[in-house]
Amino acid sequence: MRENGEDSYKHILKYTGLFGGVQGLVILIGLVRNKAMAVLLGAGGMGFNALMTSVQTFAAQCTNMGLSFGAVPRLSELYEQGEEGRLSYYVQVIRLWSLIAAVLGLAFCVAASGLVNNVTFTWGDHQLHYAMLGASVAMLAVTGGETAILKATRHMGPLARIQILGALGAVALSVPLYYRYGHSGVIPAIVATAFLNMLLTVWHSCRLYPLRLRFSRRHLCDGFGMLRLGVAFVLAAAIGSGAEMAIRAFLNVEGGMVDVGFYNAAYMITITYAGMVFSAMDTDYFPRLSAVNKDVGKTNETVNKQTEVSLLLLSPMLVALLMMLPMLIPILFSRDFLPVVAMAQVAVLAMYFKVLTMPVAYISLARSRSLAYLLLESSYFLALVVAIVAGYWWLGIWGTGVAIVVAHVVEYLAVNAFAYARYGFRSTWRVGRYALLQMAIGGLAYLVSLTVTGWGYWITEAALTLVSTACSVYILHQKTHLWQSLMRKFRI
């Protein structure tokens, strides 16, 4: 059923707020876990965990075929059309391919354990550790398939609960293992966490769609369409990982490990913070967009409304982040990282372009245009590498922040131009007006960070944060009758 304008804005605001809040809570829980790991295992233990987690992620990307993403468009269309019979059939298809991916993941880890051990360690024999990771990779494949089912059928409540319970469970399972077994508890903790997430996801999914596995040639063939998009998504992620590796290698060669650490810290705090709003894109927005991907008018409406709400929610957070960075960096890291502040503050401006780009970029995914998505993503990462090399050569570590902004501007222009020409996408005047307003406030806040110090800095930045917040709240209230909804919620 088609939502009216106010209801669709309320839906976007509700679920962007929900998953943004969930993401924030998950980040906080993760900080608790990292603190416990640092205390119980020390820097060496944290490094061992990071290495094993990166191997787990790499193995999963190599073998899961992107099913958790590629399956969503097809299921979303069937769900929107109310075709329960075909929807149940494709649920079986996804589950079959998830099991195949799980077996591949397990076999890959076992087969490659010797090679990976020789490449990553100069001491001891860790083949068994890598082989044991295969169990977690297999569980991640099953979890990914069931997550796609929940996303496509709009079961947002269970997805939110799974994220929160999974994060809490990871702490509850990991900390005792770290305490009791030290470094030897790292692998069991990774496997136990993967098992818990799989259990939670399968339990919620199978309550909605009972487990019925069918093994047939038809089921295999009908999964290839989903695999094409999923593989493109995985390849884009692999290209992104390669670009990040190249950037860090360049910074290490040209400036040393200190500059690599500075870049990592600034990139992490900026992207992670903004990710609280972007988390709703994958979970709620992508299935909704996939359901209307063949209708140009509905696609344009869905994209523009998502862009409006995401921009209005994120903008005050960006001004507040820009203001608080001189305080946050020493707290989260140490005073040695203060040179990062200037780079991070300019990099914050890139998030304005990212929030205008992401909803449009999802059109290619929703239409299963895997090659278009892959080319656009590759173009962005190429622009990022070139910009950072040039920025660092000319302006040092601050120049890498400028380069991130430049790369996002290039991506914004490329993605919107392609969507305009290929899909008939048209951005509304409201999006442009809100973007100019909020970007002007953000730009002014950045200029203040360059020119004002002391109490004048804090007072002016706080005032700009309030102005940005007031603008967003006023506009959202006009669209959703926010105050009335809140008063009804709390029975005021």
Short key terms for the protein model shown above:
88% helix; 492 residues; mainly alpha
What's the short version?
This protein is mainly alpha-helical. 88% of the residues lie in helices and 0% in strands.
Description:
Helices cover 88% and strands 0% of the residues. By secondary structure, the protein is an all-alpha fold. The longest helix is centred in the N-terminal third of the chain and has 59 residues. The two termini are 31 Å apart.
Radius of gyration: 23 Å
Structural class: mainly alpha
The largest sheet is: none
Detail the poorly predicted runs.
none
Number of helices: 17
List the helices and strands in order: HHHHHHHHHHHHHHHHH
Shape: globular
Oligomer: single chain
